[in-house]
Every structure is written in structure tokens, then in C-alpha cells.
Amino acid sequence: EAIQKPHSTFVFYTDRLGEQLEYRLKLQRDLDKAIEDHNLQLNFQPQFDIQARRIIGMETLIRWNNHGNWVSPADFIPLAEQTGQIIDLGRWILMEACLFCSQLFDKGYRDLVVAINISPRQFQHPDFITSVKQAINLAEIPASSIELEITEGVILGNEQDTIHALQTLKDFGVMLSIDDFGTGYSSLSYLKQFPLDKLKIDQAFIRQLEQNEQDQAIVRTIIDLGQNLNLTLIAEGVEKSEQLTLLQQMGCHEIQGYYFSRPLPADHLLQFLQQNNIQSA
Ligand code: C2E
Ligand code: MG
Ligand code: MG
Ligand code: MG
Questions:
Q1: Whose CA is nearest to atom 38 of ligand 1?
Q2: CB 3.0 to 4.6 Å from 242: which of 92, 129, 198, 210, for a disulfide?
Q3: Which of 278, 238, 279 minimizes the C-alpha distance to 260?
Q4: pLDDT-based confidence at 170, cuts 50/70/90?
């Protein structure tokens, strides 16, 4: 009996592994079809300037309704990274987000910046920069209306290539931000080498900001660091007025989070802009 136990445990694990593999393969096939059928939707979460008290832009967040089930991008984006599906998917997201930006432009909202998440594998693809330029040119919008959010994961790899790619994008005119700042493993030295505009403070530090003094110390330090480097600071995941008050006291420029608005489908976002009396020229 004592010998049987580890064996049955092993069988249990392989079954589970097989199940997981099957689930992933199915998800992969479903995602292929979703990309093909354009069964994906972009949501946009408004970003708010604390001092100026106005909306300055929005982050593009993908949503996938797979046979009636909402699959979180936290689950399928990493999968799409592994399978390479992120290349086609990423191109589609870029184009759709740029087209939405041009729609905003046509409605007179000319100062809003549309931020787009870029995965490491997408960024490292040889055609990436071309696809960014193409999407912006096709949509006939200024490059400065688009912000690319990259994570520190992009940087791990060839630093010289990364600097070169970012400089090319910056020269073209797009805005560049570091997403989930403070949770990566890379050194801070890249901050002085990369042509960045903004740091997005990860929501892990914001979640309990009002009751956790360590989070307060970390966030205060990130804000000071960013300000000393002339970067714009935005806090992610702000849900409570107490968090907003603290962030304002610490000198944070912008916030994004449920406190202000959830991510919204395009038509709701347009309604939200109207309701909040955003100037359209
Ligand atoms: P992220 O880029 O850091 O996006 C912020 C996440 O926080 C989003 O989750 C957003 O819905 C959520 N969020 C915003 N405000 C709040 C808040 O107040 N409280 C809480 N608890 N959450 C808030 P989402 O949409 O599930 O996306 C998860 C991650 O998936 C993103 O993290 C990003 O890494 C990735 N992702 C989403 N859309 C795309 C995309 O179009 N392309 C790529 N490459 N990645 C994407
Ligand atoms: Mg992001
Ligand atoms: Mg983030
Ligand atoms: Mg994230």
C-alpha cells in the first residue's frame, strides 16, 4: 500500500496535466477562431489628471467572450504569447485602437491619448515598428495620440536592441510608458537610457495603500523617482477616495481605476466623455 500511494499520486498528476493541456489546446483553437471571426472586443478605461481634474486618455483592454464565457486577458494573453498568436492578435488590437482614436478625433476629442498594451514577444517581432507606423498612418492620427505600454519583461533580453527600437518609436512620435512599474526584476538603470514618458505604478501597491505604510513608502519613493526623472506618474487600480487623496498628497499626476471608471466598451466610453463634459473642439 505504501508503494502504491506515490504511484496513484503520479497518475493523478498526469491526468490533471493532460486535462490542462487539453484545455490549453482548446483555448488556443478557440482563440484562433476568435481572431479570425473578430470575436474580440476592445474596452477602454479612462485615465484622469488629478490636478487638472480632467480625462486625459484611456487604456485599451481586450475582452474575449468565448461561447458565453468571459476569458480574462490575464489568462489568454500569456497563452497567446507562448503560441505566437499574439502577433496577429496584437496587430489587430493596434489597428482597432488606432481606428477608435481616429473616431475620437472625428468627434472633436483631439487631446485624448489612447494607450495600448504591448507584449514582449509582440515588441520583439521584426515587423513590430512597421506595424505601429502602418496602423497610425492608416488611421490618419498623430503618433502622439498613441501611447505604447511595455512591461519590464520587454527589456530583459537585448538592451541595446530595446533602446534602439524605443528610440525609433519615440522619433516617430508615440508616447511610451512602463506598465506594472515596481514588480519587474530588471535594474533601474534602463530608466535613464530609455526615452520614456510615463510610469504606471502597479496596482499591487495601491490595493491597500490607505492602510499599509510600506505600500505608502514604496509609492512615495516611485513618485519621487519618476518626478526626478521628469516622467509622468499614473497610479493603476485606484478604487477608493482615500487612495486618491493619498496619491494627490504624494504628488502623483494621474489615476486610473474603478474609483473613476471601469473599462468601458467604445460606445459607453463616448457616453462617459459626454456626461463628464469633456471639451470637444
Ligand atoms: P494591465 O495592462 O496592467 O491592465 C490593468 C488591469 O487592471 C486591467 O485588467 C484592468 O481591467 C484592471 N483594473 C483597472 N482598474 C482597476 C481597479 O480599480 N481595480 C482592479 N482590481 N482592477 C482594475 P484586465 O483588463 O483583466 O487585463 C489584465 C492584463 O492583461 C493587463 O494588465 C495586460 O497586461 C493584459 N492585457 C489586457 N489587454 C491587453 C491587450 O490588448 N494587449 C496585451 N498585450 N495585453 C493586454
Ligand atoms: Mg496596461
Ligand atoms: Mg498595469
Ligand atoms: Mg498587468
A1: 61
A2: 210
A3: 238
A4: very high
Whether ligand 1 lies within 6 angstroms of the CB of 93 is answered as: yes
Indicate the pairing of strand 113-117 with strand 69-71.
Answer: unpaired
CB 174 within 8 A of CB 132: yes
Query: Do residues 141 and 98 touch, judged by C-beta distance below 8 A?
Result: yes
Stated pTM of the model: 0.92
Distance 198 CA to ligand 4 centre (A): 15
Using CB atoms within 10 A of its CB, is residue 68 exposed (0-12), middle (13-18) or buried (19+)? exposed
List beta partners, residue 272: none
ipTM of this complex > 0.95? yes
Query: Can you tell me the distance from the alpha carbon of 85 to that of 79, in angstroms, rounded to the nearest whole number?
Result: 8
Cα 39 to Cα 41: distance, rounded to the nearest angstrom: 7
d(CA 117, CA 99): 16
